[in-house]
Give the backbone structure.
Amino acid sequence: LEINGDELPVSVKAAGARERSLDELRAAIVPSPSGAPVKIGDLANVAETEGLGTISRENQQYVRIVSYEFRGPTKLADRTHKAFMASITVPPGYSVGDQEWDFGYTDDSEKGLWLVFGIGIALVVLAVAMVFDSTWAAAMVSLSIPVALGGVIAAFWATHAAFTREAAVGVILVVGLAVHQAILLIDGVMRRRRARTADDRRLLPLTATVIWRAAMERSAMIVLVTLSTLASLVPLAAGTEMTSLFGAIALATAGGTVFGTLGAMVVLPAMVLPMRRSLSV
């Protein structure tokens, strides 16, 4: 009905239609041309079946949307979904496809996150090379990043947690912390090499003794950075699940920080001397 320009939906039903049972519906009388009473149950099969609450149409075609929840890594979810869609067979006239929920824009957050990650690493390496005035120092600092990323992978593998986009934010934090720890070590090595006496102004040779003394000298600061970082993660991780935003960030940061510390104190000193010798040759 239209009242004062407003359309109002109106439906007409018999009294008691909602409370009527199937037996009462089967026993209902319908008129016939001969005037003899006829029950609905004698004319049709009356039964209860499940049906859609609403019927959606697009371009004069019926549309039915089926959704499901997949708990696991994103790449595994994509492979499973593609295999499931490829295995579906429908009768002639029907089609199956993915429902698009763009709302006028596309989700480029993952691409933007990796772009920020790549630009950040490039700027860090460039800044280290400019500060130390040494491509060798920048190369050694960049070697600490794979070790820290290995810690992130190990943390998620050990806990059987899914790596999500939230965890990628923690990876960016891990890169910054790993570079910070490596800079502390490389700065100690460079300072010892630049130690001069009154009679000799040449740089000290880069020996194993110089490297390990620099590592022992900066170990206290590196451990302090690690402990303060892990302590700051306690409020994020307390009472949260690993699949949540703060839980994923805390897990990625904790694993990367621990491995980054081991890399700065053990792996990097062992690699500095061979790398320097190869560059000198």
